[in-house]
Amino acid sequence: MKLSLLEQETILLYNQAEPAAQVYTHDPKLMKKLNRLAGKHPEQIIKKDDHNFIVPKRCVSVREPYSEKRRKAASERARAAGYKPPLKSSPGQ
Q1: The model's pTM
Q2: How many structural domains does the chain have?
């Protein structure tokens, strides 16, 4: 069963006493990233089941949003360095 975008939620749980956070997610992009990281760093990123992961708290961050000026400057630096963003694939490919 495919979940709606509204149902593709992510829940982060952590407390001050423990060094790890629990991540429960139905977000396909985040699940893919966590699965990749769990394979690459199994001693730090633990996959409990399809939707539950344990990660070090230092991997969870909340950052200040980029200002338009900062975003544009970063984009220009990336272009100058030769970075080309990946092409978006069309549905059905």
Answers
A1: 0.71
A2: 1
